[in-house]
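Annex B. Sample input.
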Amino acid sequence: MTDMNQVVLEKVTVNIGVGQGGQPLENAKKLLEQLTGAKAIHTLSRTRNPTFNLKKGEPIGVKVTLRGTPAIEFVKKALVARENKILSRNFDRTGNVAFGVPEYIDFPGMKYIPEIGILGFDVCLTLQKPGARIKRRKVAPRSLPQKQRVNQAEAEAYMKKTFAVNVV
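Annex B, continued. Sample output.
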């Protein structure tokens, strides 16, 4: 396999959806910054939903994007919290992997913080092959050839090889 066909981890997005603003949102932001060591940003609601008392543009969650070595280290710890098991349905057709950690106290090195309570978080991994930038660049963007896209089998093989994950 050539270097251009090697699957690499582009980024890891860690997300906590709270569904409301105020103190619960600030607690989630504080927790996410402790987990990742990076600055968390607010995610905004896209639509108005009167049933849940949401307005468009209102902050309802927090997220952090990690790249490089911090991303790999975070994924290793998050997989320990999941007992190194990922379901095959957690992989999509385009090389993305997503899984959740139900309680942050399962994460290695974290202890229960009474003022935060119990929160879970989602971890989303974006995998790609070198050269995938051609579809996102500003000048002369092109469609990505089929052989340059990551499929589910390649994503599963990458996770097994890199993180020693059991896919069930």
